[in-house]
Structure formats: C-alpha cells, structure tokens
Design brief:
- There is one protein chain.
- With 216 residues, the chain is an alpha/beta fold.
- The protein has one domain (7-215): Vaccinia Virus protein VP39 (Rossmann fold), CATH 3.40.50.
- The chain contains 9 helices and 7 strands.
- The longest helix is centred in the C-terminal third of the chain and has 16 residues, at 158-173.
- The mean pLDDT is 95.
Length: 216
C-alpha cells in the first residue's frame, strides 16, 4: 500500500472517502452549490474580480470552480488533498464540458504552493477550518492572490464550538485522524490585512462567514 505524501493528505482521504464524496456529488447535482459557495460567488462578483484565472484551494467536488467559470473566470487550478474529491471533480468537469479549462492537483496546498502559479482570484471555501496551521495556509494563499482572496470559515459562536467538539470527539472514537479547527477570526483578519488586502464583502449564515478581500 502506498503511503500518503503528508499526514494531512492521509487524514483528508480518511474523512473524504469515496462513499462520502459520491453522496456529496449526488447532492450537488440535485440541489446545486451550498450556501457558502453561493455567498462567495456573489461576493467575488461584487468585488469586480470575477475574471481571469482562479486558484481554488480545497476545491472539493469543484462546485466553486465551476460556478466561477460560469460567471466569467477563464481558467482554474483546483487543488485538494483528498484523492476521492479530485476524482469526482474531474468526472464532473468532463460532464460539464469544462475539463480543458481546469487543471486538477491532488496535494496538500501548503506543500505544493511553490510549484503553482499565481491567480487573479484565490478561493478557500470551508478550508481554513480543516487545516491545522491557518498561518501557513493563508500565507501560501495570499502569496498567490493577484487581485482577490475569498474564504469561508466557521463563526466564533458557542454553538459552533460545541458542534465542532462533538464532531472531533466522534472522529477520535472511530480512530479518524481528521480534525476541524475554530481558528481565531481576529488573527485571520489581521493576517490578510497585513498582506495588503481589504475586506470588500462579508456574508453570513448562523454557522459560516464568507469573506471576500481585494488587494489594495
């Protein structure tokens, strides 16, 4: 059996396996993108950055990638640590006639970042909460964003913390190494601001915040 390239990739494959990803792809085909994806698309469109290339970090089944291509983006690189996600996204890209516009990469983005080109728009939809070191992840993403950075992450609320603790506890009991994290929102904002970006859009649900930043 081949070993994973990183512990994060192994954990991602464990959490986002073939069965779970197939269910998500079926739901996407029936109901379309989820709320955070829709909010990010609208925020990016509002920012005026919805053109040129996209680097979609933690792209999953490709819902955000496809939506941005439909709204004006010209090409995309979709990176995800889960083998099942990348396979499903490739399948969906072929079904939608978008395979030539998207380059797929199965990797830990932080490890692969130095090999990837910059993009007009860099996106992280429900990704920051999945990565242990948000500083490394954001640093790599910000270094690739020419015009716009868009991300969604859990709001810092007691019920979100409780739900996350329960989920992580259940993963521990089932020997699933994947964990989610409620990183400090203020620190996330400061990290992005120090890189020369300003907040231009914020949309929220009870659980999620979807923010779009533009380079100053």
């Amino acid at each position: 059996m081949l070993s994973c390239c990183s512990s994060f990739e192994c954990a991602a494959d464990q959490q986002f396996n073939q069965h779970k990803v197939a269910q998500e792809l079926k739901r996407y085909r029936q109901k379309g993108p989820g709320p955070t994806t829709r909010m990010l698309v609208e925020g990016i469109a509002q920012s005026g950055a919805l053109s040129g290339s996209v680097l979609d970090v933690g792209s999953g089944i490709g819902a955000l990638t496809f939506a941005l291509l439909e709204r004006g983006a010209t090409s995309a690189i979709a990176v995800d640590a889960s083998t099942a996600y990348v396979g499903a996204a490739r399948e969906e890209a072929v079904r939608r006639g978008r395979a030539e516009a998207i380059q797929f990469l199965q990797a830990d983005f932080v490890d692969a970042a130095s090999q990837l080109p910059s993009a007009a728009v860099v996106t992280l939809d429900r990704v920051v909460c999945c990565y242990p070191s948000y500083e490394q992840l954001l640093g790599a993403a910000l270094g690739h964003a020419e015009r716009c950075l868009a991300l969604s992450y859990p709001r810092d609320a007691w019920y979100v913390r409780l739900g996350m603790a329960i989920e992580n506890g259940l993963r521990w009991l089932t020997r699933n190494d994947f964990r989610t994290f409620l990183h400090p929102v203020t620190s996330i904002e400061e990290t992005i601001s120090r890189a020369g970006f300003r907040l231009v859009s914020r949309r929220e649900t009870w659980v999620w915040s979807a923010d779009v930043y533009a380079r100053q």
